[in-house]
Amino acid sequence: MKLQKLTNSEQGSSRRRYDDACGTAHGLELIGERWALLVMRELMLGPKRFSDIRADLPGISANVLTQRLEGLEASGLLTRKKLPPPANTQVYELTEWGYEAEPIVQTLGRWAARSPAHDPTLPISASSIMLSFRTMFDAERAKGFAARIGFRLGSESFVADIRDGSFKSGRGDPDGADVIFTGAPQALAAAVYGEMSFDELAAAGALMVEGDRKLADRFTTLFVLPPKADISA
Questions:
Q1: How confident is the model at residue 108 (pLDDT cuts 50, 70, 90)?
Q2: Closest among 191, 111, 110 to 153, alpha carbons compared
Q3: What pLDDT, on the 0 to 100 scale, is given for residue 160?
Q4: CA separation for the pair 161, 147 (Å, rounded)
Q5: d(CA 146, CA 50)
Q6: What Å distances lie between residue 146 and 151, 160, 178, 186, CA to CA?
Q7: pTM value surpassing 0.70
Q8: Residue 13: its pLDDT value, please?
Q9: Is the peptide bond prior to 226 cis by the omega test (within 30 degrees of 0)?
Q10: What is the DSSP-derived secondary structure letter of residue 15?
Q11: Residue 233 in 3-state DSSP?
């Protein structure tokens, strides 16, 4: 009876199993389903509501998002909780183990950015651009730079402290920061990675800059994309 139950269980989950003891294989069993790692990416900077996760992953359906959240919760990578009043809403949050996956997201992002086929002009979420800054931050370029940078990106707000060659960021109130960027995440990406000027973006109503303009200009130089891979051979 126990053997039969085990066999049925294995057959039911065979689509996601590799029958391979390698940790990499099991890692793919945990987060290899389509959208799973991107759902985790959206939670790397803190808990979010279902509707907010879906809004930042416009290609995902409500049904698939529900399945991924349930699967990640069953694997112990995230949990759900209800915020107290006045919020009084359910949010999803990574577990301590779930947060440990951030280096995976960063390494994959840096590696994939070297692809000649990578299109940086596609939409990007607020959480994604903030994780990108953590990934592409160049400590050498940041020597002597000390500032508190605020971000109002859509409905989300973040604060980054940059000093002593380190970059620390998280959700927070940007009021009082040395520089505050307000606008669309994609516009901020264009300023940092696309070499568009703040004046161009402001004229288009895409991004506004408050505070020390010299600090803002230097901020855009602190993040370096890796060189494209040579795939001609």
A1: very high
A2: 191
A3: 98
A4: 6
A5: 36
A6: 16, 11, 10, 25
A7: yes
A8: 44
A9: no
A10: G
A11: coil
